[in-house]
Design goal:
The complex is a heterodimer of chains A (about 500) and B (about 180).
Chain A (H helix, E strand, L loop, with lengths): L6 E3 L1 E4 L8 H15 L3 E7 L3 H9 L2 E10 L10 H5 L13 H22 L3 H14 L4 H14 L5 H14 L4 H14 L4 H13 L3 H14 L4 H13 L3 H14 L4 H13 L3 H14 L7 H16 L3 H14 L4 H13 L3 H14 L4 H13 L3 H14 L4 H13 L3 H14 L4 H13 L3 H14 L5 H19 L1
Parallel strand pairs in A: 1-3
Helix pairs in contact in A: 2-4, 4-5, 4-7, 5-6, 7-8, 8-9, 9-10, 10-11, 11-12, 12-13, 13-14, 14-15, 15-16, 15-17, 16-17, 17-18, 17-19, 18-19, 19-20, 20-21, 21-22, 21-23, 22-23, 23-24, 24-25
Chain B lengths: L2 E6 L1 H15 L6 H5 L4 E7 L2 E9 L8 E7 L7 H12 L3 E5 L3 H10 L3 E10 L10 E5 L16 E5 L7 E6 L1
Parallel strand pairs in B: 4-5
Antiparallel strand pairs in B: 1-2, 2-3, 3-4, 7-8, 8-9
């Protein structure tokens, strides 16, 4: 009992082997009756990603009445992380990076797909088809559902028997949660009787993927292609298999074949774009993403797509092509206006183009979106420093080191600014921190020595000059001479 | 106009909290946190008059970093946006967590937090269903019932499968 009176918190769990048989909704129904008798009001909650629980609660006569909302902890964008990007493929993307609308669409499609499978497994193919079509209303490109609809059509066209279709749906209904090996046995029964039935090979390949028997999966896709060379989804599924195995060239080739067979199947463009991003071909990836977006604009805010623009924008900044970078970063912001890193990078591009006001606006907005974004404070601090606004600059660098205490550059810049302002006491700890974090930074020793000398810590100053002389390369001749002179002078002063 | 938030005992805010529960009239997911002692309570005042309360819990039980309840009595609700920063300041909370059906705290979340996500769906009762399942028995839990999963506690009720080959009791429900 966790809720306030009179609400009762329903909780249930079903033994794994007994799932997907309607028992969850049945027990919820019965426990709701127990609640009514006890004068309680049934209520529940479940994680957004647990589709089966959500479906069971809805089936048992509950309805969604809200979400638990929380300020999201900031997740840093990792530039050009190929492996990560692969996880954001179309039908498995995480709710953390997706917009609520996108999430609802995919969740809705999944729920109706499962409902269809449940009805199909119970032998009610008409209800199954209705549910599959509802799933497609949510998401017209849902590949698994398209195959399920194909099976329903094949029953009507007598290409496959009703009994075998029911077996296929039972197998799919089971393999998500239960024993994949059991599902494999069922599907083999169907294939023994219908050795030329393409969808069965596609489904078996999916089960092989789950069992990590990738070669068998590949063989099944090959057989499916031989049987129905014009069925576009076979190449799409195989492309996804290759993509997950990091066989990028084969994946690209399969997605291209899908597009050749059915140019309206937008997920093939999206997936090919993802693979191209993985091999660093951002230009071609972005072309594909633009086509995919025209077909299904809800993909706009997915990490992969705006991430591709952000990545290319960052590459352009590195190559000092700032106008090109601006174009990419503008598009990234247009696609997802709530991602702080896009504003930070656009700010950097503006700063390099000497459009300082615009750069400050972007840094401000990045900080507004993510108040603990150290890089945004650092870059804004750097801009203020170049504009000779030392007080603002110091405030931003201090915020940077408060958020990221090991931010070497911010400590170094703080030390530099304090030296310029002749606040020698204040700069010493920052140079000490730089030296602790990067003992090879000889300039930190040099400035530290100067500050120590000014604050009359002669012994420490001599040690710092010595450390500077040990580390500084020969090309800084003047500074070396200066340090040697200071050591001589300070040794005499210290001796007195 | 002096708006302030000050730390207080749970018993001090209980009368205000009853008003909150009466007004909201839906399940409160973190209701039990109060009685378990996992929260800090803050009394909100307007020129010294008690006008509401805020409650803080933590993403970890021992922490107090999340504002999860916020209530202002209706005549003073126009000052919600002004007093909420006082609560943030007094509590040092860095997160807000709320139910989207709690409109007052949700509006504060929208106003004060740029990055919002949802990971849990809340459900309320909607319709009564009449599914029949002759192969199973729904009954109260008995002492000799065994858990099918050692990590899952048995609840007050179980569903028992009568069919051969799956004789374990396999469902537990907590009320």
């Amino acid at each position: 009992m966790h809720y306030n009176m009179p609400f009762a918190d329903l909780y249930m769990d079903v033994k794994e082997a007994c799932r997907r048989k309607g028992y969850a909704s049945y027990i919820l129904q019965e426990v709701k009756k127990a609640c009514y008798l006890a004068g309680r009001v049934p209520a529940a909650c479940c994680n957004i990603g647990t589709i089966a629980s959500r479906a069971a609660l809805i089936k048992a006569g509950l309805k969604a009445c809200g979400f638990m909302l929380i300020k999201r902890r900031y997740q840093k964008f990792k530039p050009m992380n190929r492996k990560l990007i692969l996880f954001y493929i179309l039908f498995s993307f995480s709710s953390v990076f997706s917009q609520t609308t996108g999430e609802t669409v995919v969740a809705g499609a999944l729920v109706y797909n499962y409902k269809g499978l449940e009805a199909g497994a119970d032998g009610d193919l008409e209800t199954a088809r209705t549910n599959f079509e509802r799933a497609l209303n949510y998401m017209p490109y849902f590949a698994r559902t398209l195959v399920n609809v194909q099976i329903c059509k094949d029953v009507e066209a007598r290409i496959v028997t009703r009994r075998h279709a029911v077996l296929l749906f039972s197998c799919m209904n089971n393999w998500g949660s239960a024993d994949a090996v059991e599902s494999l046995k069922l599907i083999n029964v169907v294939l023994r009787k219908n050795p030329t039935y393409t969808p069965a090979y596609l489904l078996r390949a999916q089960i092989y993927r789950k069992l990590k028997r990738f070669e068998d999966a590949e063989t099944d896709y090959y057989k499916a292609l031989k049987l129905s060379p014009e069925f576009a989804l076979t190449n799409y599924f195989r492309g996804k298999l290759f993509s997950s195995l990091q066989k990028y060239n084969q994946a690209i080739s399969d997605f291209t074949r899908t597009i050749e067979k059915d140019a309206t199947y937008a997920p093939a463009f999206l997936e090919r774009g993802i693979v191209l991003t993985s091999i660093n071909k951002h230009d071609r990836a972005i072309q594909d993403f633009e086509i995919a977006l025209k077909a299904w604009p809800k993909w706009a805010a997915t990490f992969t797509i705006f991430g591709a623009y952000l990545n290319r924008g960052m590459q352009n900044i590195e190559k000092k092509r700032y106008y090109a970078a601006l174009s990419d970063l503008n598009r990234a912001i247009e696609l997802n206006p709530k991602f702080a890193e896009s504003y930070l990078n656009r700010g950097i591009a503006f700063q390099n183009l000497r459009e300082f006001d615009k750069a400050i606006l972007d840094y401000n907005y990045a900080i507004h979106l993510e108040p603990e974004y150290a890089a945004a404070y650092y870059n804004r601090g750097h801009l203020f420093q170049t504009r000779k606004k030392s007080d603002l600059s110091i405030a931003d660098y201090l915020s940077t080191v408060e958020i990221e205490p090991d931010h070497k550059q911010a400590h170094y810049r703080l030390g530099e600014l304090y030296i310029k302002l002749k606040q020698f006491e204040k700069c010493i700890p920052h140079f000490a921190k730089v030296i602790e974090l990067n003992p090879g930074n000889y300039w930190a020793y040099y400035w530290q020595a100067l500050a120590l000398e000014k604050t009359k810590n002669y012994r420490d100053a001599i040690n710092s000059y010595i450390a500077f002389l040990e580390k500084v390369p020969a090309e800084h001749k003047n500074h070396k001479v200066f340090a040697q002179e200071r050591i001589k002078k300070l040794t005499k002063v210290a001796a007195k | 106009m002096n708006l302030s938030a000050s730390k207080s005992e749970l018993k001090t805010i209980l009368s205000l909290r009853n008003l909150f529960l009466q007004e909201t009239n839906f399940q409160i997911r973190y209701d039990a946190c109060h009685e378990r002692g996992w929260t800090d309570s803050y009394l909100l005042t307007f020129d010294g008059v008690e006008i509401g309360y805020g409650s803080i819990n933590g993403q970890e039980i021992k922490n107090r970093d999340t504002i999860f309840e916020f209530y202002i009595i209706p005549p003073f609700r126009q000052f919600a946006s002004q007093i909420f920063p006082e609560l943030i300041k007094a509590s040092g909370a860095s997160l807000i967590e709320c139910q989207s059906n709690d409109f007052l705290l949700t509006s504060m979340l929208y106003e004060f937090s740029p990055n919002i996500s949802a990971d849990v769906v809340l459900f309320e009762d909607h319709v009564a269903t009449v599914y029949k399942n002759p192969g199973v028995v729904f009954r109260a839990t008995r002492k000799d019932d065994k858990r099918f999963d050692p990590e899952v506690e048995l609840g007050e009720y179980v569903l028992e499968l009568e069919r051969r080959g799956c004789s374990n009791r396999w469902i537990s429900v907590a009320l």
